[in-house]
Amino acid sequence: MLFNTIDFAIFLPIVFAFYWIIGSKNIKLQNLLIVASSYLFYGWWDWRFLLLILFSTIVDYTVGLGLLKEENQRKRKILLWTSILVNIGFLGFFKYYNFFLDNFITAFSFFGTEIKANSLNIILPVGISFYTFQTLSYTIDIYKRKLEPTRDFISFMAFVSFFPQLVAGPIERASNLLPQFHKKREFSYSKAMDGILQITWGLFKKMVIADNCAEYANLIFNNSADYSGVTLVLGALFFTFQIYGDFSGYSDIAIGTSRLLGFNLMKNFAFPYFSRDIAEFWRRWHISLSTWFRDYVYIPLGGSKGGTGMKIRNTFIIFVVSGFWHGANWTFIVWGALNAMFFLPLLLTKNNRKNLDIIGKGKSIPSLRELFSMVLTFGLTVFAWIFFRAESIGHALSYIGGFFTESFFKVPGMLKTNEINQIYIILIIFIIIEWIGRDKEYGFQFIKSKPKIVVYVATYLLIMAIVLFMSLEVQEFIYFQF
């Protein structure tokens, strides 16, 4: 089920009503309603993959209890590796089997040996990259004795399958989300209204910003050989705003929906395009994934301790693995490696934690130095996104090569229409709103401090913008494919 559909618009109020009216005095009943709602939400896409979530849930629940009782270190490692192999095994098979098979065949062909093997027609389960990492953090934290396992199977099922963030995050830690299923949750009007406001802002980011930018980004990327350099630059910029509006919009809807049900999810985006360096960008972009890789991969490898060689190795590992997590394509690996190259100079000069606060704090506009740093960082990010969006490395290189043509300043007619001029205006308004609200949990939250009439008018205008500029066809969220 997609957030931006009539189905979800009907589904959420029904769940909300049952949750607070029928289950308000019984935590177990509320948790059971969440499990049932979550399985319906996920099964709406393909009910067969409910068995996959259920199996993963049973394995990690059992492993967690086993780690609680077991003191023998060797047996504890066996239990941990059972969880890792099951979860990574499923992820590897569904997401990477054909990738490794094709590259294995290509490698042997290069040396003159032909291997005949058929690719499998595998359907990638939506959200598998997200809930796999979520359950893995549970068993790893228990193994490290940082977390007590739960004996309540229904609560654990609810934690694994929690529908607002099930298919595209945030990737929650058990230490944050799981205890919330054990505590009494009381309805809060102000919290619910804030949740609705964040949901509305998320829908605006997805249906107005992302979907409209996607139309032109897809047109330009899919026909890049036909366009001039300046058009290709615009295509990269459109995709840059598309992926941000799409993914952060999903997170806003997920967090807002959770707030309606009395839960607090972690912040997943913190205005990353206002970053002054790449290190700051990665502290603000997809925070739940970045911190997951930091805690469960980067730090165990030694982090930034040790010599220069170890720092370089660990940095490339974390960024390349992060890129590969996004998809079975060399473009994602190159995208990750590029970000590692952008990040390394900051790490090696010990400037990677230089910009920890928001840009232009307490000021209406940034300083010239901050503005220059922000524009430079944004430019590097846009450049890297080209590899993320391209169909292949060859496509990315030819796309970049297209910047340097004699027709660089030739602008095709389709980029001078009234429709695209409207998008320019909407993007400018969007950037201004995000800038004003950059110290808040989400961009539009600043409106809450204004007089009620201003709040009502602004919210009405936001809803009208969604209605007027939404696509006639429902567009999936980009991160569903990851």
Describe this structure in words.
This protein has 482 residues and is mainly alpha-helical. It contains 17 helices and no strands. The longest helix has 38 residues.
Summarize the structure.
By secondary structure, the protein is an all-alpha fold. The chain has 17 helices and no strands.
Topology summary:
Layout lengths: L5 H17 L4 H20 L3 H20 L3 H38 L17 H16 L9 H9 L12 H4 L11 H34 L6 H32 L17 H7 L2 H12 L9 H19 L3 H19 L19 H22 L3 H9 L16 H19 L15 H18 L13
Query: What percent of the residues sit in helical stretches (DSSP H or I)?
Result: 55-70%
Largest sheet: none
**Structural class by helix and strand composition:** mainly alpha
What is the end-to-end distance? Answer: 16 Å
Count of DSSP-assigned helices: 17
Round the Cα radius of gyration to an integer and report it. Answer: 23 Å
Proportion of residues in β-strands: under 5%
pLDDT under 50 segments (min length 5)? none
SSE succession: HHHHHHHHHHHHHHHHH
The count of strands amounts to: 0
* Overall structural domain count: 2
Overall mean pLDDT stands at: 89
Shape: globular
